[in-house]
Specification:
The chain is mainly α. 0% of the residues are buried.
Length: 108
Amino acid sequence: MNKFEEIVKQEKLVSYVQRDRQLFGFYTMVLIAQEQAAKKVKIKLWALLIVLTVFASLFLSSINQSIVFLVGHLNTIDITDIFIMALISYGVAGLYLLLIRRGAIVSR
């Protein structure tokens, strides 16, 4: 601790002169703004975490019931149902391609 106290005494004896006060003020304000922005981001992230947690807790139970319903009925699907689903999905995809080529569906 003796060496540390010597360094402190030496630094107290030295006087520093600020050459560009505007630059120093600007730098200080930038540091303050960065710290405030970091605090705002942390607050927003915590708020987002809380909102997502509430959203998940509210809607996961209904999603869970839907998944249980679908999985429960998967064992009744046979090859004809799979063929019908494939035919419908390819038909819808073909219809979309036809509408896109004719210009009926315009993406902006």
